[in-house]
């Protein structure tokens, strides 16, 4: 990949709504990743998911660039020196060597940088492992959460480092999710539900911030969104009353009909009907239109791609949005409650296509990392 794509040398972001000037966009393997699978029907289905995902990422990239945002798209993986068409066999051999009792899945492509990265003012905090670190950012702007080195490299490229089997067997046990931190100017909202000392660690490292803690389950961008100052949108899964103290005086929208699909959006409606019929096949974890009629696809995903999928049944992508400014926000789906509230606050929603969002279990916030926004630290709670 052209090294000129890695242009993140200076960072600046203290919230999620100042004018966005540079963003990192995730990536997935090329369809050649599955080229060596012998079952031609299964191979075609898996390659279709990768092809259409890459095509939709291109569309998201163009939308951002048309809005004046510089888009940096890193490689899809952290396996230097291995051709895409050889990667599946290489990873399958690794799983065989360590044993399926230890390695539960082939590592996920680096599609969702937001899971493991967050821009904290003039630094980018990396909270993951080397498995999730393909982005060759300027080391001067990156802070690292102290996790064990799980990937080693030598002259031949990728090789397994100590601790990989344990890491894949107990996914992310040594990490925390970057979305557990939400920036609101000089205040951080920190979800400590599964990391009781997280706020202490973060504030010790970034003393310029203060914090207010909440507990919504760790992955806050799947539960809430702050599109602009004064507005919070959240799912029915959390108690909106917590924001009255955390975000005093803000307009709070608790989505009442999260799975409402509009009849004038035929494709979305058909997709939801199919999802409701087929979700039992995959236990609500993921969905693709081909799952019901292709048991081999379901078996393959369950056997090899467990970490590629999430739990799509509980995901509300109408909160997983990306603000380009206080006036423009990107979303994957029209949902009337959210659309009307955004318009009331003077925001223009821009809708992007991401056909396999219910396979990957991620929205636009997950797919991106805001590295540079105009503006600086502000106090949004001055009395």
Rough outline? globular
- Class computed from helices, strands and strand pairing: alpha/beta
Strand order of the largest sheet: 2-1-17
Q: Largest sheet, if any?
A: 3 strands, mixed
Residue-averaged pLDDT, rounded? Answer: 79
Gyration radius (Cα, Å) is 20 Å
- Helical content stands at 25-40%
- Uncertain segments: 1-5, 148-174, 261-269
Query: How many independent structural domains?
Result: 1
CATH architecture title: 5-stranded Propeller
Number of strands: 17
- CATH structural class: Alpha Beta
Order of helices and strands: EHEHEEEEEHEEHEEEHEHHEEHEHHE
Total helices: the number is 10
Cα end-to-end separation: 50 Å
Q: Give the CATH topology.
A: L-arginine/glycine Amidinotransferase, Chain A
Give the helix/strand layout.
Layout: E1 20-25, H1 40-66, E2 70-73, H2 84-98, E3 117-120, E4 123-126, E5 142-144, E6 151-154, E7 157-160, H3 164-169, E8 181-184, E9 187-191, H4 198-205, E10 210-214, E11 224-228, E12 231-234, H5 243-246, E13 251-254, H6 266-278, H7 295-304, E14 322-323, E15 328-331, H8 336-344, E16 348-351, H9 357-360, H10 364-367, E17 368-373
Parallel strand pairs: 1-2, 4-5, 9-10, 12-13, 15-16
Antiparallel strand pairs: 1-17, 3-4, 6-7, 8-9, 11-12, 14-15
């Amino acid at each position: 990949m052209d090294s000129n794509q890695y242009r993140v040398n200076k960072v600046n972001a203290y919230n999620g709504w100042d004018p966005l000037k540079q963003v990192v966009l995730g990536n997935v393997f090329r369809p050649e990743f599955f080229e060596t699978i012998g079952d031609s029907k299964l191979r075609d289905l898996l390659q279709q998911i990768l092809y259409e995902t890459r095509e939709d990422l291109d569309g998201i990239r163009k939308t951002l660039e048309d809005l004046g945002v510089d888009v940096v798209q890193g490689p899809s993986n952290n396996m230097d020196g291995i051709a895409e068409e050889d990667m599946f066999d290489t990873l399958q051999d690794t799983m065989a060597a360590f044993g399926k009792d230890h390695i539960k899945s082939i590592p996920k492509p680096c599609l969702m940088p937001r899971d493991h990265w967050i821009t904290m003012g003039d630094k980018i905090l990396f909270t993951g492992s080397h498995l999730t670190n393909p982005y060759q950012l300027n080391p001067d702007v990156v802070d690292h959460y102290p996790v064990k080195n799980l990937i080693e490299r030598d002259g031949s490229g990728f090789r397994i480092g100590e601790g990989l089997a344990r890491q894949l067997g107990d996914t992310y046990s040594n990490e925390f999710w970057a979305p557990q931190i939400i920036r609101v100017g000089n205040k951080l909202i920190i979800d400590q539900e599964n990391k009781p000392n997280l706020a202490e660690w973060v504030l010790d490292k970034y003393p310029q911030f203060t914090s207010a803690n909440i507990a919504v389950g760790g992955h806050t961008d799947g539960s809430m969104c702050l599109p602009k100052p004064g507005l919070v949108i959240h799912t029915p899964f959390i108690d909106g009353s917590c924001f009255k103290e955390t975000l005093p005086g803000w307009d709070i929208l608790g989505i009442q009909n999260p799975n409402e699909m509009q009849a004038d959006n035929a494709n979305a409606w058909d997709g939801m009907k199919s999802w409701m019929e087929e979700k039992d096949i995959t236990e609500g974890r993921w969905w693709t239109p081909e799952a019901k009629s292709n048991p081999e696809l379901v078996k393959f995903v369950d056997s090899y791609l467990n970490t590629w999928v999430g739990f799509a049944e509980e995901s509300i992508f109408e909160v997983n949005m990306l603000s380009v400014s206080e006036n423009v926000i990107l979303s994957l789906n029209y949902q009337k409650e959210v659309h009307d509230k955004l318009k009331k606050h003077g925001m223009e929603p821009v809708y992007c296509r991401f056909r396999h969002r219910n396979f990957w279990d991620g929205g636009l916030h997950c797919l991106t990392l805001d590295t540079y926004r105009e503006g600086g630290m502000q106090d949004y709670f001055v009395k």
